[in-house]
Design a protein that fits this description.
- With 596 residues, this protein is α+β, with helices and mostly antiparallel strands.
- 25% of the residues lie in helices and 21% in strands.
- It has an eight-stranded antiparallel sheet, with no helix packed on it. Strands 7, 8, 13, 14, 18 and 19 form a six-stranded antiparallel sheet that branches. A four-stranded antiparallel sheet has the order 3-4-5-6, with no helix packed on it.
- Strand 22 and strand 23 form a beta hairpin.
- Helix 2 packs antiparallel against helix 3 and helix 6 runs parallel beside helix 9.
- It is globular.
Length: 596
Amino acid sequence: MALDLPVEDRDLSPLTGWTRAHWEAVADHLLASVEPYATDGFAQYRLPGPPSRNGMVSDGLEGFARTFLLAAFRIAGAGGGAPGGLLERYAAGLLAGTNPTHPYAWPPLDDMSQPLVEAASIAVALHETRPWLFDRLAPAEQEQVVAWLAGFVGKRTPDSNWVLFRVIVEQFLASVGGPHDPAEITGGLDRIEDWHTGDGWYTDGDGRNFDYYSGWALHLYPVLWARMAGREFGLHDRLARFLDGYQHFFAADGSPIFQGRSLTYRFATVAPLWLGALAGDPILAPGRIRRIASGALRHFTGNGAPDHRGLLTLGWHRPYSPMIQSYSGPASPYWASKAFLGLLLPADHPVWTAVEEPAEIELRDVTVALPGPGWLLQGTRADGVVRLLNHGSDRAAKTSPDGPPDPLYVRLAYSSHTAPQFGDGSADGRLAVITPDGREAERRHIEPLTVTGRVAASRWRAGQVEVVTTSTVDGAFEVRVHDVSAPAGHLIRDGGHALASDRPLACHADGGEGIVSRADGLTSSIRALAGFTGAGLRDGPEGDAFGAYSVTPYLMSRHPGGTRRYVSVVRLGRGPDGPAPVWSDGSIRWSQTTVL
């Protein structure tokens, strides 16, 4: 099913050409494409693909709930008059799913169960479409819907962003006179305060679990709760601080930084950008909000998401199973519906009528220190690439100590144009310390040391191994200084970015440098400045999320024992980038400037 888009408007949107009409067209395309997969009565949408660990019925509910969220934004944005019979279709599915005698009835809301997640999307959708859907149901039908949602009251959830699903569901129940517990609503809102680490950044539960959930959940649901409760949003300054840094997570071509779990939600990454406007103040310039958001949506629609059937698949640009979590089923990608929050704003709102303004990366190089999560962002105007240097997020509290660290969290570097390789022996974005018998000391628990200006540093320990890494950036360059303490005979290996393509890559490695390039000129390189004695290349046997061929350049050296310093310069970018940094007399020299 081909995506039929309106003519671009380069007067209103000189950078992307996209307007509100383009957003509506994509929404209509996504909603029309899932209709053939609905069960009788429209209670479930059973999309093609491998089931999640939750089973077919839960996955079918997920298909309803997440597309209902998109339908609700479309319906509300059109004043109840969205095309395609959306209102009738989702009203029918709502009544079928909440009817326990229907053959495709939804599962009950049990402790710790996936339907709790989906209930929140249904509650948001019911609130936003209330004048046209819930309020027009017969009293007995309303009671049936309320009875299913009321199953949430008193149920246990994981101690994570899930506490906000309770807040949303019970607030909707309160708004329609249904069963609810006010203490559970305030308890969920209070709980996330314990996870705020400063400047608007939340860890998703205890530990250092920093990722997109900070935006598309932990900021999103309090704003939606305030709309539902008729309250003034009380965290506006916190959201403003968050967005001041978050706006830089998007490359000039619209691609978000590839880091963290649930990345198959793709353009849901833009959901936080609309929140300030929904809360009463756009925070960012309205023209910049639309430019970044439209850029991301256009990026994915132009790179295979949705696919030729009009479906969002489990992957990034293409289906890619290694990046998928066990809780993800065929309809999970439709949390991408959150990207369409902007449709709740009227067509004459400045976010839709202001002329697009460029993102900062289109104007100048960007370096942003984010001490809360322990991140340093590095964006370059010349190639539009954004890189994230990670000195604080590890998700160690959420992963098994017997399993490997999560590659979506523990790498030293991520970017908008590359993805980590999965599987044993991957080398990208990591300082590996390997014993003579092949066992690897792993960066699992990251201790942040500093993030300020152009410098970030962290420490990790594993048995007899301790590594302190300091990253310093300038332009497209990152200089890594590793102070490694380990017994003699260990192999030290430092990896650059894994570069991928659907065609073979140009690769070269000699004694002190590894380089990987693809046809469009994007190059990943790593060069030894001190301590390393060799270079190599590591193939990703499964490719990665960006392509079937994936290669990482790396450096290596045999450790003599005790503490030794290893220094490398990492670059990901296109074209010439000025003189490379030099390590001299224990300091980095950037042309005329000396650091460290």
